[in-house]
Amino acid sequence: MLAQLAWKNIWRNKIRSLVVITSVMLGIWAGTFIMSYVFGMMEQRLSDAIENEISHIQIHHPDYDADNDPVFVIPQSQQLLDLLDEDEKVDCYSARVLAYGMINSASTSAGGKLIGVNPAQEDKLTNISQFISSGEFLDDTDKNKIVIGKRLADKLKVKIRSKVVLTFQDVDKNIIAGAFRVIGIYESYNSSLEELNIYLNDKDLLRLLGNGANHHEIALLMNDSKEVDAYSTQLSSANPGLKVETWKELSPELNLMIETMDQSMMIFLIIILVALSFGIVNTMLMAVLERVREIGMLMAIGMNRTRLFAMISLETIFMVMIATPAGLLLAFTTIEYLGTYGLDLSAIYAEGYAQYGFKPLIYPTLGVDYYIKIVQLVFITAILSSIYPAITALRLNPVTAIRKI
Amino acid sequence: MSYPQNHTNEDSVILTEKLSKTYEGIVPVKAVNQVDLEVKKGEFIALVGPSGSGKTTLLNLLGGLDSPTSGSVIIHNQDIAQLTKNQLIDFRLRNIGFVFQAYNLIPVLTARENVEFVMLLQKIPVEVRNARVDQLLKEVGLSEQANKKPSKLSGGQQQRVAVARALASKPQFVLADEPTANLDSKTAFNLLDMMAKLNEDEGITFIFSTHDQRVIERAKRVITLVDGSLESDIVKEVLVA
Ligand SMILES: Nc1ncnc2c1ncn2[C@@H]1O[C@H](COP(=O)(O)OP(=O)(O)OP(=O)(O)O)[C@@H](O)[C@H]1O
Ligand SMILES: [Mg+2]
Fold first, then answer.
1. How far is the CA of B57 from the centre of ligand 2 (A)?
2. Residues of chain B positioned with their CB less than 8 A from the CB of A9
3. Which of A160, A170, A342, B116 is most buried (CB neighbours < 10 A)?
């Protein structure tokens, strides 16, 4: 009965109630959508980072990271690779020979990271060939050929078929140089990598690094991302002499970003809801104060405080209950649509995003658990913002209320 | 309870003892001053007096809407000062019917639902409720208008619904503060006739305040207030037909 009365009361002032309902709906829609947008961006960044850059797991000599000295190779790397080949949990891997050095063109020079790869392996792991914008990626038979990023090419003022000289230290700390020809230029959404990474055949680099050189890095992708942590532990104990790291360890900032995103998004949502609740409280107070006489009459004829409180709070709660599914449905539709077709912000933001490795095309996404969390938070908001107007109604004294006007 | 034994009576529904209400202010107003009053079951009482004489204040005290500065109100042997706020609301629900001058009805509910409302508050079962609503609306002559909202009813019809609503909880008595003030005289008489008939036929106790001399004539007992004090209390022998 109270529920019916509350429901009818909402529609006494249709416009006002619709304004409240619409603003709550839009608030929920905006909040939910922005969450999905940020999550979409994060997930994309994470999957890009894993699929094109760092992979799930990387293996190094324990001392390699400290100063990137080429001496610190993975001993007997081939045995390890053979084991990985046989393991069904491993999707693919790439064994890399690394060296930091200078790249010199006819006009200028720049620093770079030389990555000696088995081209087929590397391409399978990081899809590098997809990023080639001119020329082509390496192949097994190429000798003294390199592939560089567009930014580096621009910096060095080199084009396809330009000649460059790579200078770096060999395992005996001698400075050595080699002449190479640029056969491919890649463009990455991650501008810092585009400026740094130089790809060449592993055989070329091994030869130049000298006796005793071997792979410095093995990067691998698992078939199931949930197995990463367990597999890393397993590899680590099987190879006590090696350092095995997951993407979380390799890119702690990425991991931190993802782990704190939850909280940040919840705080963001709470701020939106607090703002909305002020609007709700304000409107409901108006609705109570213009019914002073009626509320006085209700108390006089025997509506007790609990019932009065329930009636007024239900009015608030009902409005939110109408707005919530509407807002969520709107958000869901938007997210599904843009999640499929993508939201292209390249016109506005491409440069800014690229510096942090984000693509300008975002696919918003939001897990079911977030919808549930949002519903819970909205429900709490409804309850909280229903209290004050209801208390105000209780404070009315029937006599003063009736005598008024 | 401290009222004298000889005042207690099985028939008495209201008993006041030196009932006073003073509104504090720069000049304190003794709106109700030392009123001793006994109302018996089945009475039909007009409360009269000049404007500002304290009629509304007295009715509010009798109905437990306001609390006295001193003195007591005993309803059906219950000193209402001893009830908590919520108990008092519940007590009103069960014992007192109210008809106000205006704003009596819940605007979003139909006539029928307005009458039903107090019974819903009392959790009266649906069959009983329906039968009683039908009967009450018939008694106030509004069976035809049962499904209309107050805004679609005339002032007189609204007051009739209010009377039906006041009776719905089978109260000990009905308090009506100037129920006819907003009505033209013909409608006012009709309402009074109806109340008088309910009083005659069903013994319902009515206490109503009024300024209207011709309405006063319908009362069986006329209590006159002046400056908050009882000036006269006249019980007529025969009801004017
Ligand atoms: N809330 C209040 N605060 C101060 N004084 C009040 C208050 N309510 C009523 N009064 C005063 O108490 C006195 C009695 O008022 P009351 O309304 O009971 O008179 P009344 O007989 O009902 O008058 P009317 O015929 O005009 O309705 C008046 O002098 C009035 O000004
Ligand atoms: Mg009055």
1. 7
2. 108
3. B116
Report CA-CA distances (Å) from A341 to A39, A362, B172. Answer: 16, 9, 72
Distance CA B179, CA A360 (A): 73
Q: Do B176 and B209 touch, CB atoms closer than 8 A?
A: yes
| Model confidence at B97: pLDDT above 90 | yes
Q: Which two tokens stand for residue B108?
A: 């979003």
Instruction: Note the pLDDT of residue A354.
Output: 65
Q: Would the pLDDT of B120 be above 90?
A: yes
Å between A1 CA and nearest CA of chain B: 7
The residue to which tokens 């197995």 are assigned? A227
| Side-chain-side CA neighbours of residue A229 (13 Å) | 2
Among the partner residues A5, A305, A398, nearest to B86 by beta-carbon distance: A305
The per-residue pLDDT for range A329-363, each reduced to its tens digit, is: 999 999 999 998 888 877 776 666 666 666 778 89
CA-closest residue to ligand 1 atom 16: B54
And the tokens for A55? Answer: 């992979």
| ipTM associated with this complex | 0.90
Strand partners, A361: A344
Verify whether the Cβ–Cβ distance B169 to A302 is below 8 Å: yes
Q: Architecture of B41-59+86-240 per CATH?
A: 3-Layer(aba) Sandwich (3.40)
Ligand 1 pocket test target in B55, B175, B213, B223 with most atoms within 8 Å of CB: B55
Enter the tokens of residue B239.
Answer: 């009801």
A6 contacts on B by Cβ (under 8 Å): none
Domain boundaries, chain A: 2-49+255-402, 62-241
Q: Which of A1, A294, A302 sits opposite B92 (nearest CB)?
A: A302
Q: Provide the pLDDT confidence category of residue B4 given band limits of 50, 70 and 90.
A: very low
